[in-house]
Write a structure and sequence with these properties.
Helix content is 76%, strand content 0%. The chain has 213 residues and is mainly alpha-helical. The protein is globular and about 55 Å long. It starts with a helix and ends with a helix. The model has no long low-confidence stretch (mean pLDDT 91).
Length: 213
C-alpha cells in the first residue's frame, strides 16, 4: 500500500470514527434525553440529537465521497464508536460522554483545518460552529452536576472517567499517525492529548472545589 493510499485510508477511518460517535450520541440523546431532570433539558437534548445525527450524516457522506462510492442510507454505525459511549444507559453518563467526546472530536476537526487538504475547510466549517454549541451546553450541565448535592457529583465525575481514557487513547493514536501526517491530513507535531487533558481537567477540578466548600 502506497503512502498516499495509507494516508487516505487512515483519514477515512478518522472521519468514520467521528461519525460513528455522533451517530450513537444522537440516538442516545433521543432515547435517554427524555429522562432529563426537567422539560427544558429534555427539549434541549432532543434538539441536539438532531444536530449530532445531522453531523454524522454529513461525515458519512464525506467518507462515501472519499471512497468513491454511492451515498447510501445510514442504518447503523460502522463499528468505530467508543465502547464507553455505546454502553451509556443513563442521563448522567450521557451528558458526561457528550461533553468529553465532543471536546476530543472538536480538537481533531480543528487540527484537520491546519492540514494541506483545503477541501476539509468547506466540509467542516459549519459543523464546527454547531459543535461549539453542543460543547457549551454539555459543559454547562457537567459543571452544574459536579456542584450538585449528594451522590450526583461523584456519579458525574465517574461518568467522565469512564469515557476519558478511550478518547485520550484515540487522540494519542492520531498524534502518532505517520500516515495522516505524511499525507498532510494533520500537521507534524500536532498536539491533541495535552489540550484534551487540560479542558477536561479544568472541569473536573470544579468537583474538588465544591468538595472544599
Amino acid at each position: 500500500m502506497s503512502n498516499k493510499t495509507a494516508g487516505l485510508a487512515s483519514f477515512i477511518e478518522t472521519i468514520e470514527t467521528i461519525a460513528d460517535n455522533k451517530y450513537i450520541l444522537g440516538d442516545l440523546l433521543v432515547e435517554i434525553g427524555v429522562s432529563g431532570p426537567d422539560l427544558e433539558a429534555t427539549l434541549s437534548t432532543i434538539a441536539m440529537a438532531q444536530g449530532e445525527l445531522g453531523h454524522a450524516r454529513l461525515l458519512y457522506n464525506w467518507a462515501f465521497d472519499l471512497k468513491g462510492i454511492k451515498k447510501q442510507e445510514i442504518e447503523r454505525q460502522t463499528g468505530k464508536a467508543f465502547t464507553s459511549v455505546v454502553a451509556v444507559d443513563n442521563w448522567i453518563d450521557l451528558i458526561g460522554s457528550l461533553y468529553v467526546v465532543n471536546v476530543g472530536l472538536e480538537l481533531v476537526l480543528k487540527a484537520m483545518l491546519n492540514g494541506r487538504h483545503t477541501d476539509v475547510v468547506n466540509r467542516i466549517n459549519k459543523l464546527l460552529r454547531e459543535q461549539k454549541e453542543h460543547i457549551m451546553y454539555s459543559r454547562g450541565w457537567v459543571e452544574q452536576l459536579l456542584r450538585d448535592q449528594g451522590a450526583v457529583p461523584r456519579k458525574m465525575d465517574e461518568s467522565i472517567k469512564k469515557v476519558f481514557p478511550e478518547v485520550q487513547a484515540w487522540l494519542k493514536g492520531l498524534e502518532d499517525s505517520s500516515a495522516l501526517i505524511e499525507e498532510g491530513y494533520l500537521k507534524p507535531g500536532v498536539r491533541l492529548v495535552v489540550p484534551f487533558q487540560s479542558q477536561i481537567g479544568s472541569v473536573q477540578a470544579q468537583r474538588a472545589e465544591s468538595d472544599v466548600v
